Amino acid sequence: MNSKKSFYELIRFVIVGGAATLVDLAVTTILVFATTLHENIITSVAFITAFWVSYFGHKNFTFKKNGSALSFFILAVSTLVIRNIIVWGLVLCDIRGLPALITAMVAVTAITYFVAKFKIFKG
Length: 123
Fold this sequence. Notes:
The chain is an all-alpha fold. α1 packs antiparallel against α2, α1 runs antiparallel to α4 and α2 runs antiparallel to α3. It starts with a helix and ends with a helix.
């Protein structure tokens, strides 16, 4: 793959990832301020909502390749588990609310890119 094509793919990943992150953050923020749900429930609901933005965005825009929805779902669930472990650990350290949720959200982004690019949408 030439460097110009790789650069534009990376820009598209950032756009789709940004859109999914905005959806994730919006759902997270709404649930934090509108409910009394535990942080792990909030992060799960937000993550699953953003999953659909991410999958269809990467499939149709970023990589423009048919990737396995099942593989992408497994990636999402795996990173959701990692994310919840991070949130759980931060809550145990009395870091709650948005700081815990955003820290966990950022931590799983790099994992998602590399696995999606090199395993799921490698086509």
